Amino acid sequence: MNLHEYQAKTLLTGYDVVTPRGEAVLSAVDAGRAARHLGGRVVVKAQIHAGGRGKAGGIKVVDGATEAERIARELIGAKLVTPQTGPSGRVVERLLVEEQLSIRNELYLGILIDRRLRQVVVIASAAGGMEIEQVALDSPELIYRLEVDSRLGLLDFQVRCVADAIGLTGSSAKQAASLLQGLYRAFVELDASLIEINPLVVTEVGDVIALDAKITLDDNALFRHADLMRLRDLAEEDPLETEASKYSLSYIRLDGNIGCMVNGAGLAMATMDIVKLAGGDPANFLDVGGGANAEQIRNAFRILISDDKVSAVLINIFGGILRCDVLAEGVIGAVAELDVRVPVVIRMEGTNVDEGRRLLQKSGLNFTTVNSMSEAAKQVVRLAS
Amino acid sequence: MAVLVDQDTRLLVQGLTGREGSFHARQASTYGTVVVGGVSPGKGGTSHDGLPVFNTVRAAVRETGANTSVVFVPAAFAADAVMESADAGIPLIVCVTEGIPVQDAMTALDFVERCGCRLIGPNCPGVISVGLGKVGIIPGHICLEGKVGIVSRSGTLTYEAIHQLTLLGLGQTTCIGIGGDPIVGTTFIDALKLFEEDQATEAVVLIGEIGGVAEEQAAGFIREHVSKPVVGFIAGQTAPSGRRMGHAGAIVTGGMGTAAGKMAALSSAGVAVVESPSEIGTATAQVLGRQ
């Protein structure tokens, strides 16, 4: 789960991470009031779950309350398109109004899990404000990596080394050390999978401040963080994806016209691949899970076809735990109940496959049943065009 | 011959009295695996489906001589269950449970390794040694005894590969699902080592997916250390970046972990990489035919 910048900053403040003074607002009038309260020049920042906001016009520096209110009026309700939002963009609902700092330099700090090392790593760089992946590619010597022994945590000397590596000395180094310790504590306590401060800035007077903050939480750990679950912003999610998650279905909307319903994430990805190889375009990724029941299959089918781009459906199920007769019942129920007009191609294999096939045949509904993945892909691409 | 699981496997089921645990304990037993009991804290001293239930893994090991455990307990308690088995000295622990927090998985894996045990998973279908026994949830009836080893990050896609091989009359030695999470106990490299050493295995099918660098590392290992032919498939060739495809580990970020990069790495290591998942079986027939 991703958090908004304003949410991340509020959380991090509780871990001794210094952030600019500011306020999150939902209206232009409040933006003006916040700016007046802060005084002087302020920064108005669109709160969406995507990077690249600055270039897309989502971050503006303005002089005073009147100007802040005018810019806020333009931004709220506007659609921001950045490289990370996809072509459809995101509608801005909330703004963060912050004091403008006089910045001496911009640095980078990140904490994440290194899958290869199976460890938490700290990434730091003196080249802040840029895409860190790009920096890592172009000038790897500017990246400092620190592997954390989770049994010991971040050690003081390690933190001093990080500050030194990104060129901080004196009071700035001390502030950065305390900030990094705070970030690490937050990472562990919040069950984060990523915390990124880009840029971390040093002001003209030498203060070290998190100018931006990005936190991604581990979805699997949310069960023990009821307070964090409240920070989920449904407006940032596709409504069909939200609906699917209610039934423990993993659904992701894509751009094509072939609806796919599969059990298992790997097989679902492989099904998308084979549809593409057959010349088609998948409309979605949909994993109904290993142990789906007839009810879940019905819901999955309903969600799948409520995307009006879908002109044919491919169901590919390898029944291990999920029995083919249960699948067949679910699909038959859904098709009958929902008055499905688009062609449905079904490929199923595994436990009770003969009974499943018999049920489909007996239903009198218009299914195309096939025996292999490649045949299924060919058929559904033909029927969709 | 087979790897990890064989006729000497004595299986303990953690979470035996739950729905999944009881179902799969029965399936494993029907397949011929020696299931010696289960652990369900608070239910020790009772029996379930004719199997003794214990409060702790230590007690179960003492009474039954269990040497393998399979974990079906809910995600919030699964890491603890894994560590309990490691502490009791069980050398092979298979964690089927899905949805374990990644920091818990790291802690558990660290502990398991310090105990000198092996963890497979989490979020995996487990291991089946065809004709000998199974630990996990891979359906036995789709398998055929033979000489192909399978290692995969996926569940049902593994079944698909097994099915294709079986239809072509190509049997399997052992099939290992290593799991779809970012942090897993047993890697492709660990499995490849086992298959390379196993005399009965003559070819290996490796099924990867987008996200992480496990396939790239496997490619490096294959180039240096694997003499047997390997067939590879990577799921998620058409997945958009930045979106997590079901598995917690299946995500392309910042250009890392793409299918194209993994396929190229495997190809350059001499792996027969197929573009279409439907070609896994025929490609395996080909590499075996060339021998």
What is this structure, in a nutshell?
By secondary structure, chain A is an alpha+beta fold. Chain A has helices spanning 5-13, 28-38, 64-75, 132-138, 156-165, 170-189, 226-229, 239-246, 265-277, 294-305, 324-338, 353-362, 373-384, and strands spanning 22-25, 41-46, 59-63, 79-80, 90-91, 95-99, 103-114, 119-125, 143-148, 192-203, 208-210, 214-217, 250-253, 258-262, 284-287, 312-319, 344-350, 367-370. In chain A, α11 links the parallel β16 and β17 (344-350).
Major β-sheet strand ordering of chain B: 3-4-2-1-5-6-7
Compute the separation of the termini of chain A in Å: 37 Å
Helix share bin of chain B: 25-40%
Shape, principal axes of CA atoms of chain A:
elongated
Mean pLDDT of chain A comes to: 93
Query: What's the alpha carbon Rg of chain A, rounded to whole Å?
Result: 25 Å
Q: Care to count the β-strands of chain A?
A: 18
The end-to-end span of chain B amounts to 20 Å
Write down the overall mean pLDDT of chain B: 95
The chain pair forming the largest interface, with residue counts per chain, is: A-B, 54 and 62 residues
Largest sheet of chain B: 7 strands, mixed
Helix content of chain A: 25-40%
Number of strands of chain B: 14
Q: Briefly note the structural class of the backbone of chain B.
A: alpha/beta
List the uncertain runs of chain B.
Answer: none
| Net shape of chain B | globular
Write down the Rg of chain B.
18 Å
β content of chain A, as a range?
25-35%
Count of helix runs of chain A = 13
In oligomeric terms, what are we looking at?
A: heterodimer
